[in-house]
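[audit] Reproducing an earlier prediction to check determinism. Same input, same settings, fresh worker. If the tokens differ from the archived copy the diff job will pick it up downstream; this log only records the rerun itself.
[audit] input (471 residues):
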Amino acid sequence: MRPVSVWQWSPWGLLLCLLCSSCLGSPSPSTAPEKRAGSQGLRFRLVGFPRKPFEGRVEIQRAGEWGTICDDDFTLQAAHVLCRELGFTEATGWTHSAKYGPGTGRIWLDNLSCSGTEQSVTDCTSRGWGNSDCTHDEDAGVICKDQRLPGFSDSNVIEVEHHLQVEEVRLRPAVGRGRRPLPVTEGLVEVRLLDGWWKVCDKGWSSHNSHVVCGMLGFPSEKRVNAAFYRLLAQRQQHSFGLHGVACVGTEAHLSLCFLEFYRANDTTRCPGGGPAVVSCVPGPLYAASSGQKKQQQSKPQGEARMRLKGGAHPGEGRVEVLKAGTWGTVCDRKWDLHAASVVCRELGFGTAREALRGARMGQDVSKRYECANFGEQGITVGCWDLYRHDIDCQWIDITDVKPGNYILQVVINPNFEVAESDYTNNAMKCNCKYDGHRIWVHNCHLDDAFSEEANKRFERYPGQTSNQIV
């Protein structure tokens, strides 16, 4: 039997956390570079943007026609096989919902299922070549480990043509060489192309362009800049321009998705009559640029939040919940995409969404699932204890109503000394816990006899099982 109890440590209160969990390991991906005959006649490439050379939408050329792979039933094991087809040692991740943009043409594979050890994608199971009920909004992508297979021949891999594209965007402050506050919220727009960082000509620059740039950098909105000051400053400096035209709608998740006009090597003039584009962004509550700005934001009256993120490991990620009629609820993931996620992120004070997760990846609704009187169930709530059979691997502790703070977790085995032991002092484990509303840290775990007598007084003794309500 495995009793679990949580006790209040005045003045902080109590916490219940998730105990043990285990997961099955997946087979180690093979790194053999040899190819079977099954891959002959197929060619592979990574495409889409924004991306790095070892990631992208997977496309396969079969019978002279390029096509994509649907993300239905796609797994990391399938990504391992495809990354090896592309000449990489293994995959580190995969993407769904056309993260690198939707492809065109055929969808060659659907419901692709691999064990991870196959030498060729043709050894995996699927619905058959060209048999799919997906759209290109479900194109799968892979993120391969940036390590090539030794002796791998690139004859089977077709890389995307090295066309010009914006890989990164940053703001460079125009004045001030000393220590600057972070993050940088205003400055000259610079884009990184294949050959380095370049300025952007401001001719035709719009607030929609600024909105996209600020969103990429994690800011919810943009504001006007002192154009006269920057134009005067530009006359005293020399700038290298890489873009002479940008036209965004304002909803794009990345500047590379906007219409771009690049300078060519034979261009004789660059940005005639114009100057470098300048953007000023408004930081969200978590990223206020200065203490004065923080105080100004705190002084504004704030109503009750009507949207929140729950279940995420870091600020800015989690399950989307909205408040309606006094009750928090979730959002269905049907048609949930990067545009919808970006609206939520900006409303919460962040920039453009990096990824729109579906399928309850951040957990289902943390409404209460366990109550106090639940002997034999796999869960308890605050202020309760319960007994568990030896064959139950995990004990869930419902912390739905627990507020952030410092707590103590206590686990006791054989609390009533019903099983004979030579030493009962090592049957209790006690840990300090910290809960910030998103994550739980468990530290300073000790057995019962590891505490001094004074420290041990902070913990109440286990009361027995006359009732599963702790009093």
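[audit] rerun output stored. Observation attached for the diff report: The first helix runs from residue 76 to 85.
[audit] end
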